[in-house]
Amino acid sequence: xxxxxxxxxxxxxxxxxxxxxxxxxxxxxxxxxxxxxxxxxxxxxxxxxxxxxxxxxxxxxxxxxxxxxxxxxxxxxxxxxxxxxxxxxxxxxxxxxxxxxxxxxxxxxxxxxxxxxxxxxxxxxxxxxxxxxxxxxxxxxxxxxxxxxxxxxxxxxxxxxxxxxxxxxxxxxxxxxxxxxxxxxxxxxxxxxxxxxxxxxxxxxxxxxxxxxxxxxxxxxxxxxxxxxxxxxxxxxxxxxxxxxxxxxxxxxxxxxxxxxxxxxxxxxxxxxxxxxxxxxxxxxxxxxxxxxxxxxxxxxxxxxxxxxxxxxxxxxxxxxxxxxxxxxxxxxxxxxxxxxxxxxxxxxxxxxxx
Length: 355
Hints:
Number of domains: 1
Strand content: under 5%
Radius of gyration: 20 Å
Shape: globular
Structural class: mainly alpha
Number of strands: 0
Helix content: over 70%
Order of helices and strands: HHHHHHHHHHHHHHHHHHH
Oligomer: single chain
Protein backbone atom coordinates (compact mmCIF):
# COMPACT_ATOMS: atom_id res chain seq x y z
CA UNK A 1 0.00 0.00 0.00
CA UNK A 2 2.91 2.34 0.67
CA UNK A 3 4.09 1.70 -2.89
CA UNK A 4 0.59 2.50 -4.19
CA UNK A 5 0.61 5.75 -2.20
CA UNK A 6 3.97 6.71 -3.71
CA UNK A 7 2.69 5.91 -7.21
CA UNK A 8 -0.31 8.19 -6.71
CA UNK A 9 1.93 11.01 -5.51
CA UNK A 10 4.22 10.47 -8.51
CA UNK A 11 1.29 10.55 -10.98
CA UNK A 12 -0.08 13.70 -9.36
CA UNK A 13 3.25 15.55 -9.50
CA UNK A 14 4.79 14.18 -12.69
CA UNK A 15 1.68 13.69 -14.85
CA UNK A 16 -0.58 16.24 -13.11
CA UNK A 17 -3.35 13.64 -12.71
CA UNK A 18 -5.85 15.32 -10.34
CA UNK A 19 -3.02 16.57 -8.07
CA UNK A 20 -5.35 18.41 -5.66
CA UNK A 21 -6.91 15.05 -4.82
CA UNK A 22 -4.28 12.39 -5.47
CA UNK A 23 -1.52 14.02 -3.41
CA UNK A 24 -3.66 14.14 -0.23
CA UNK A 25 -4.93 10.59 -0.90
CA UNK A 26 -1.44 9.28 -1.67
CA UNK A 27 0.07 10.83 1.44
CA UNK A 28 -2.90 9.64 3.47
CA UNK A 29 -2.15 6.09 2.31
CA UNK A 30 1.38 6.46 3.68
CA UNK A 31 0.01 7.67 7.02
CA UNK A 32 -2.62 4.94 7.23
CA UNK A 33 -0.23 2.09 6.51
CA UNK A 34 2.63 2.89 8.89
CA UNK A 35 2.90 -0.12 11.25
CA UNK A 36 3.12 0.57 14.96
CA UNK A 37 2.88 -1.31 18.24
CA UNK A 38 -0.15 -0.54 20.39
CA UNK A 39 1.21 1.66 23.16
CA UNK A 40 -2.19 2.42 24.62
CA UNK A 41 -2.55 5.60 22.57
CA UNK A 42 -5.43 5.99 20.07
CA UNK A 43 -3.59 6.46 16.77
CA UNK A 44 -5.24 4.47 14.01
CA UNK A 45 -7.98 5.97 11.89
CA UNK A 46 -10.31 3.21 13.05
CA UNK A 47 -9.68 3.80 16.78
CA UNK A 48 -12.41 5.88 18.36
CA UNK A 49 -11.05 9.11 19.80
CA UNK A 50 -7.92 9.30 17.66
CA UNK A 51 -7.22 12.45 15.66
CA UNK A 52 -7.49 10.57 12.37
CA UNK A 53 -10.76 8.97 13.45
CA UNK A 54 -12.21 12.41 14.24
CA UNK A 55 -11.18 13.67 10.79
CA UNK A 56 -12.65 10.51 9.25
CA UNK A 57 -16.07 11.36 10.71
CA UNK A 58 -16.37 13.98 7.98
CA UNK A 59 -16.46 11.13 5.47
CA UNK A 60 -18.45 8.56 7.41
CA UNK A 61 -21.13 11.15 8.21
CA UNK A 62 -21.15 12.63 4.68
CA UNK A 63 -19.97 16.10 5.76
CA UNK A 64 -16.98 16.55 3.42
CA UNK A 65 -18.77 15.54 0.17
CA UNK A 66 -21.67 17.88 0.97
CA UNK A 67 -19.31 20.80 1.56
CA UNK A 68 -17.48 19.96 -1.66
CA UNK A 69 -20.84 20.28 -3.45
CA UNK A 70 -21.30 23.69 -1.82
CA UNK A 71 -18.01 24.78 -3.38
CA UNK A 72 -18.88 23.23 -6.76
CA UNK A 73 -22.24 25.02 -6.77
CA UNK A 74 -20.52 28.35 -6.19
CA UNK A 75 -18.25 27.69 -9.20
CA UNK A 76 -20.86 26.54 -11.71
CA UNK A 77 -22.54 28.74 -14.28
CA UNK A 78 -25.81 27.08 -15.34
CA UNK A 79 -26.29 29.53 -18.24
CA UNK A 80 -25.67 26.97 -21.00
CA UNK A 81 -28.17 24.59 -19.48
CA UNK A 82 -30.80 27.27 -18.90
CA UNK A 83 -30.38 28.59 -22.46
CA UNK A 84 -30.88 25.10 -23.94
CA UNK A 85 -32.85 22.96 -21.44
CA UNK A 86 -32.89 19.89 -23.67
CA UNK A 87 -29.20 19.44 -22.84
CA UNK A 88 -30.43 18.24 -19.44
CA UNK A 89 -31.52 15.03 -21.18
CA UNK A 90 -27.92 14.31 -22.21
CA UNK A 91 -26.80 14.59 -18.61
CA UNK A 92 -29.59 12.20 -17.64
CA UNK A 93 -28.68 9.70 -20.38
CA UNK A 94 -25.10 9.51 -19.17
CA UNK A 95 -26.35 8.20 -15.81
CA UNK A 96 -27.18 4.94 -17.58
CA UNK A 97 -23.62 3.88 -16.82
CA UNK A 98 -24.39 3.99 -13.10
CA UNK A 99 -27.33 1.60 -13.29
CA UNK A 100 -25.59 -0.61 -15.87
CA UNK A 101 -22.62 -1.09 -13.54
CA UNK A 102 -25.02 -1.66 -10.64
CA UNK A 103 -26.63 -4.58 -12.48
CA UNK A 104 -23.25 -6.01 -13.48
CA UNK A 105 -21.97 -5.76 -9.89
CA UNK A 106 -24.97 -7.77 -8.71
CA UNK A 107 -24.13 -10.45 -11.29
CA UNK A 108 -20.57 -10.60 -9.91
CA UNK A 109 -21.86 -11.36 -6.44
CA UNK A 110 -21.77 -8.00 -4.70
CA UNK A 111 -24.57 -7.20 -2.26
CA UNK A 112 -27.14 -4.62 -3.49
CA UNK A 113 -25.80 -1.84 -1.25
CA UNK A 114 -22.24 -2.52 -2.40
CA UNK A 115 -23.36 -2.61 -6.05
CA UNK A 116 -24.98 0.81 -5.61
CA UNK A 117 -21.77 2.29 -4.23
CA UNK A 118 -19.77 0.78 -7.09
CA UNK A 119 -22.16 1.89 -9.84
CA UNK A 120 -21.91 5.57 -8.92
CA UNK A 121 -18.28 5.52 -10.13
CA UNK A 122 -19.75 5.94 -13.61
CA UNK A 123 -20.65 9.51 -12.74
CA UNK A 124 -16.91 10.22 -12.49
CA UNK A 125 -17.64 12.43 -9.51
CA UNK A 126 -15.42 11.57 -6.57
CA UNK A 127 -17.46 13.46 -3.97
CA UNK A 128 -20.71 11.73 -4.97
CA UNK A 129 -18.97 8.34 -4.97
CA UNK A 130 -17.52 8.92 -1.50
CA UNK A 131 -20.85 10.16 -0.14
CA UNK A 132 -22.83 7.17 -1.41
CA UNK A 133 -20.26 4.55 -0.42
CA UNK A 134 -20.01 6.07 3.07
CA UNK A 135 -23.75 5.52 3.48
CA UNK A 136 -24.14 2.17 1.72
CA UNK A 137 -20.81 0.35 1.93
CA UNK A 138 -18.29 2.05 4.26
CA UNK A 139 -15.72 -0.72 3.83
CA UNK A 140 -15.53 0.04 0.10
CA UNK A 141 -14.89 3.78 0.43
CA UNK A 142 -11.19 3.53 -0.35
CA UNK A 143 -11.53 1.34 -3.44
CA UNK A 144 -14.50 3.32 -4.77
CA UNK A 145 -12.80 6.68 -4.17
CA UNK A 146 -9.51 5.80 -5.83
CA UNK A 147 -11.39 4.30 -8.79
CA UNK A 148 -13.60 7.39 -9.22
CA UNK A 149 -10.73 9.88 -8.99
CA UNK A 150 -8.55 7.80 -11.31
CA UNK A 151 -11.18 7.77 -14.05
CA UNK A 152 -11.79 11.49 -13.53
CA UNK A 153 -8.10 12.05 -14.27
CA UNK A 154 -8.22 9.76 -17.31
CA UNK A 155 -11.17 11.50 -19.01
CA UNK A 156 -8.96 12.98 -21.79
CA UNK A 157 -7.56 9.51 -22.50
CA UNK A 158 -10.60 7.23 -22.22
CA UNK A 159 -13.33 9.33 -23.82
CA UNK A 160 -11.91 10.41 -27.23
CA UNK A 161 -11.70 6.88 -28.76
CA UNK A 162 -15.31 6.20 -27.72
CA UNK A 163 -16.47 9.53 -29.15
CA UNK A 164 -14.73 8.92 -32.49
CA UNK A 165 -15.94 5.33 -32.73
CA UNK A 166 -19.60 6.27 -32.24
CA UNK A 167 -19.75 9.35 -34.51
CA UNK A 168 -19.34 10.04 -38.21
CA UNK A 169 -17.26 12.86 -39.67
CA UNK A 170 -20.47 14.62 -40.75
CA UNK A 171 -21.81 14.50 -37.20
CA UNK A 172 -18.57 15.86 -35.74
CA UNK A 173 -18.90 18.92 -37.99
CA UNK A 174 -22.38 19.90 -36.78
CA UNK A 175 -22.51 23.55 -35.74
CA UNK A 176 -24.87 24.48 -32.94
CA UNK A 177 -26.59 27.82 -32.49
CA UNK A 178 -24.80 30.16 -30.07
CA UNK A 179 -26.53 29.98 -26.66
CA UNK A 180 -28.72 32.96 -25.82
CA UNK A 181 -27.88 35.35 -23.01
CA UNK A 182 -29.35 34.30 -19.66
CA UNK A 183 -30.43 36.89 -17.10
CA UNK A 184 -29.52 36.95 -13.42
CA UNK A 185 -33.19 36.46 -12.53
CA UNK A 186 -33.34 33.24 -14.57
CA UNK A 187 -30.26 31.90 -12.80
CA UNK A 188 -31.67 32.62 -9.35
CA UNK A 189 -35.01 31.03 -10.24
CA UNK A 190 -33.18 28.00 -11.64
CA UNK A 191 -31.31 27.46 -8.35
CA UNK A 192 -34.50 27.65 -6.30
CA UNK A 193 -36.66 25.58 -8.66
CA UNK A 194 -33.83 23.10 -9.19
CA UNK A 195 -33.64 22.50 -5.44
CA UNK A 196 -37.41 22.15 -5.00
CA UNK A 197 -38.00 19.91 -8.01
CA UNK A 198 -35.10 17.51 -7.44
CA UNK A 199 -35.40 17.25 -3.66
CA UNK A 200 -39.17 16.85 -3.60
CA UNK A 201 -38.74 13.98 -6.05
CA UNK A 202 -35.59 12.50 -4.44
CA UNK A 203 -35.39 13.78 -0.84
CA UNK A 204 -32.53 11.39 -0.05
CA UNK A 205 -30.35 13.47 -2.39
CA UNK A 206 -30.84 16.58 -0.25
CA UNK A 207 -27.36 16.63 1.37
CA UNK A 208 -25.73 16.96 -2.06
CA UNK A 209 -28.39 18.77 -4.09
CA UNK A 210 -29.23 21.20 -1.31
CA UNK A 211 -25.60 22.28 -0.96
CA UNK A 212 -25.10 22.41 -4.74
CA UNK A 213 -27.98 24.82 -5.33
CA UNK A 214 -27.19 26.79 -2.17
CA UNK A 215 -23.66 27.38 -3.45
CA UNK A 216 -25.05 28.42 -6.82
CA UNK A 217 -27.44 31.00 -5.39
CA UNK A 218 -24.54 32.45 -3.38
CA UNK A 219 -22.81 32.92 -6.72
CA UNK A 220 -25.75 34.25 -8.72
CA UNK A 221 -27.50 36.47 -6.15
CA UNK A 222 -24.89 39.21 -6.61
CA UNK A 223 -25.04 40.21 -2.94
CA UNK A 224 -23.08 37.34 -1.35
CA UNK A 225 -19.88 37.52 -3.33
CA UNK A 226 -17.71 37.12 -0.24
CA UNK A 227 -19.53 33.94 0.75
CA UNK A 228 -19.32 32.55 -2.78
CA UNK A 229 -15.60 33.35 -2.96
CA UNK A 230 -15.06 31.59 0.36
CA UNK A 231 -17.05 28.53 -0.70
CA UNK A 232 -15.23 28.06 -4.00
CA UNK A 233 -11.83 29.09 -2.64
CA UNK A 234 -10.56 28.54 0.91
CA UNK A 235 -13.43 26.28 2.03
CA UNK A 236 -13.27 23.81 -0.85
CA UNK A 237 -9.46 23.74 -0.59
CA UNK A 238 -9.57 22.90 3.13
CA UNK A 239 -12.24 20.24 2.66
CA UNK A 240 -10.34 18.72 -0.28
CA UNK A 241 -7.26 18.37 1.95
CA UNK A 242 -9.22 16.75 4.80
CA UNK A 243 -11.24 14.50 2.48
CA UNK A 244 -8.24 13.26 0.50
CA UNK A 245 -6.08 12.68 3.58
CA UNK A 246 -8.89 10.85 5.42
CA UNK A 247 -9.77 8.66 2.45
CA UNK A 248 -6.11 7.79 1.95
CA UNK A 249 -5.56 6.96 5.63
CA UNK A 250 -8.58 4.64 5.55
CA UNK A 251 -7.07 2.67 2.64
CA UNK A 252 -5.24 0.08 4.70
CA UNK A 253 -3.90 -3.09 3.17
CA UNK A 254 -6.51 -5.54 4.56
CA UNK A 255 -9.33 -3.47 3.05
CA UNK A 256 -7.75 -2.63 -0.31
CA UNK A 257 -5.50 -5.52 -1.37
CA UNK A 258 -8.36 -7.87 -2.21
CA UNK A 259 -9.93 -9.38 -5.32
CA UNK A 260 -13.02 -7.28 -4.69
CA UNK A 261 -10.95 -4.11 -5.11
CA UNK A 262 -9.81 -5.29 -8.54
CA UNK A 263 -13.42 -6.06 -9.45
CA UNK A 264 -14.46 -2.59 -8.30
CA UNK A 265 -11.77 -0.97 -10.44
CA UNK A 266 -12.90 -2.99 -13.45
CA UNK A 267 -16.57 -2.25 -12.85
CA UNK A 268 -15.71 1.44 -12.51
CA UNK A 269 -14.13 1.36 -15.95
CA UNK A 270 -17.20 -0.35 -17.42
CA UNK A 271 -19.49 2.17 -15.74
CA UNK A 272 -17.45 5.10 -17.05
CA UNK A 273 -17.27 3.75 -20.61
CA UNK A 274 -21.00 2.96 -20.70
CA UNK A 275 -21.85 6.43 -19.36
CA UNK A 276 -19.76 8.08 -22.08
CA UNK A 277 -21.20 5.91 -24.84
CA UNK A 278 -24.78 6.36 -23.60
CA UNK A 279 -24.47 10.15 -23.78
CA UNK A 280 -23.13 10.11 -27.35
CA UNK A 281 -25.67 7.54 -28.57
CA UNK A 282 -28.54 9.47 -26.96
CA UNK A 283 -27.60 12.62 -28.91
CA UNK A 284 -27.50 10.65 -32.17
CA UNK A 285 -30.97 9.28 -31.53
CA UNK A 286 -32.30 12.63 -30.31
CA UNK A 287 -31.07 14.32 -33.50
CA UNK A 288 -33.47 12.13 -35.52
CA UNK A 289 -36.34 14.17 -34.05
CA UNK A 290 -34.76 17.63 -34.36
CA UNK A 291 -34.82 20.06 -37.25
CA UNK A 292 -31.55 20.54 -39.09
CA UNK A 293 -30.89 23.96 -37.54
CA UNK A 294 -31.47 22.59 -34.03
CA UNK A 295 -29.35 19.46 -34.23
CA UNK A 296 -26.84 18.77 -31.45
CA UNK A 297 -23.23 17.82 -32.11
CA UNK A 298 -22.92 14.31 -30.61
CA UNK A 299 -19.36 15.12 -29.53
CA UNK A 300 -20.90 16.86 -26.52
CA UNK A 301 -22.68 13.64 -25.49
CA UNK A 302 -19.64 12.58 -23.46
CA UNK A 303 -20.03 15.68 -21.28
CA UNK A 304 -22.94 14.12 -19.40
CA UNK A 305 -20.23 12.52 -17.28
CA UNK A 306 -19.93 15.00 -14.44
CA UNK A 307 -16.18 15.38 -13.93
CA UNK A 308 -16.39 19.15 -14.51
CA UNK A 309 -14.81 20.57 -16.63
CA UNK A 310 -12.73 17.77 -18.19
CA UNK A 311 -15.46 16.16 -20.37
CA UNK A 312 -16.53 19.56 -21.76
CA UNK A 313 -12.91 20.41 -22.54
CA UNK A 314 -12.56 17.04 -24.27
CA UNK A 315 -15.61 17.81 -26.44
CA UNK A 316 -14.02 21.11 -27.45
CA UNK A 317 -10.66 19.50 -28.19
CA UNK A 318 -12.05 16.71 -30.37
CA UNK A 319 -14.44 19.06 -32.17
CA UNK A 320 -11.65 21.45 -33.11
CA UNK A 321 -9.59 18.61 -34.53
CA UNK A 322 -12.20 18.35 -37.29
CA UNK A 323 -13.15 22.06 -37.53
CA UNK A 324 -10.90 24.56 -35.79
CA UNK A 325 -13.62 27.23 -35.93
CA UNK A 326 -16.31 25.11 -34.26
CA UNK A 327 -16.49 26.00 -30.57
CA UNK A 328 -18.31 23.36 -28.52
CA UNK A 329 -17.16 24.24 -25.01
CA UNK A 330 -20.12 26.42 -24.00
CA UNK A 331 -22.57 23.87 -25.43
CA UNK A 332 -20.78 20.98 -23.70
CA UNK A 333 -20.94 22.74 -20.34
CA UNK A 334 -24.73 22.30 -20.44
CA UNK A 335 -24.75 18.49 -20.19
CA UNK A 336 -21.63 18.67 -18.01
CA UNK A 337 -23.37 20.61 -15.24
CA UNK A 338 -26.54 18.59 -15.86
CA UNK A 339 -24.42 15.51 -15.17
CA UNK A 340 -23.59 16.85 -11.72
CA UNK A 341 -27.29 17.22 -10.94
CA UNK A 342 -28.03 13.83 -12.53
CA UNK A 343 -25.33 12.01 -10.55
CA UNK A 344 -26.59 13.51 -7.28
CA UNK A 345 -30.16 12.51 -8.17
CA UNK A 346 -28.98 8.99 -9.06
CA UNK A 347 -27.10 8.79 -5.74
CA UNK A 348 -30.28 9.89 -3.95
CA UNK A 349 -32.34 7.22 -5.75
CA UNK A 350 -29.86 4.48 -4.85
CA UNK A 351 -29.66 5.68 -1.27
CA UNK A 352 -33.44 5.84 -1.00
CA UNK A 353 -33.87 2.27 -2.24
CA UNK A 354 -30.82 0.64 -0.67
CA UNK A 355 -30.07 2.73 2.43
